Amino acid sequence: MNILLRSRLHAAEGPVAFEPPKRKPFMPLKRWRKKAHRDKVPHRTAVSKLVFGLSATLSLAAVGHAQVRVAVCQILVIDGDRQGNFRRIEYALKTARAEHADIATFPESSILGWENPDAHTLATPIPGADSDRIAALARKYRMMIAIGLDEKDGERLYDSAILVGKTGKLLWKYRKIRVLPQLMKPPYSRGKPSGIGGVDTQFGRIGVVICADTFTDAYVRRMAGLKPDLMLVPYGWAAPADQWPAHEKDLERLVSSRAKLWKCPTVGTDLVGEMTHGPWKGYTYGGGSVVADSTGAVLAVLRDRDSDVRVVELPLDQHAAMQP
HEC profile for the chain? Predict the structure, then answer.
């Protein structure tokens, strides 16, 4: 408890008494009553200021040490199954809402599947039809949503992620930089390092990057320089089936090391399913989503090769509280 708050609490705990002035000899009774009333008003004002100041200080203390409940939504994603994937997204949101989550996080390319060449014709712009549906879900469940989805911009296809506020407002969009062009023809277009950033929200400064971008130290350091309060990272963590669950441990180590460098809680959300195209066809997404605190300590690891929704409460030291 800070000194200001402690002193105000001490003042508030004691009685705030009003003692009228003593009546001097030969002072008319009417004049004495007026003086008593006049002297009484400042005492009332002081009490009002004390209560208001104490309330403001308590509010500031609450803001500075906020808690946020994050639902890690490790869902099954089927390539090209837009309607089914949206249904599974909403199932996860229902669970998250029932557990009073503030933010729901989802994997990379949650709508059409990662490295799916059909996305060149199926993906929509941002803002656009898919992001609008996510916004409608955010409004319906009164929850902030971070999700990876493919984005069509002219002839280009981006591996993107968005953060949507609980009112449906698009707060942030990020385009993946390290796109692994050997996995799809034509490949995803690359985002730019200048796109690395974050947005100030009621839960502090939230940063979003995507999967393989956390492999690149330069990108990680650039984000660290922005001093995020919370990092949300959609993953498409795939490997041959016989490499699971060992591959899960690699994700755990990666998320832990990045959380320690960023000095803030970090949520890495993977999916479950299978890659159906390209040189990695048949690779398994095995889940094992990870939550780590600001020291890199692992707080939660979700189920191996199964859908899972886990709500984790995280403490936050906020830089700002600007948007709903």
Answer: CCHHHHHHHHHHHCCCCCCCCCCCCCCCHHHHHHHHHHHHHHHHHHHHHHHHHHHHHHHHHHHHCEEEEEEEEECECCCCCHHHHHHHHHHHHHHHHHCCCCEEECCCCCCCCCCCCCHHHHCECCCCHHHHHHHHHHHHHCCEEEEEEEEEECCEEEEEEEEECCCCCEEEEEECCCCCHHHCCCCCECCCHHHCCEEEECCEEEEECCHHHHHCHHHHHHHHCCCCCEEEEECCCEECHHHCCHHHHHHHHHHHHHHHHHCCCEEEECCEEECCCCCCCCCEEEECCEEECCCCCEEEECCECCCEEEEEEEEECCCCCCCC
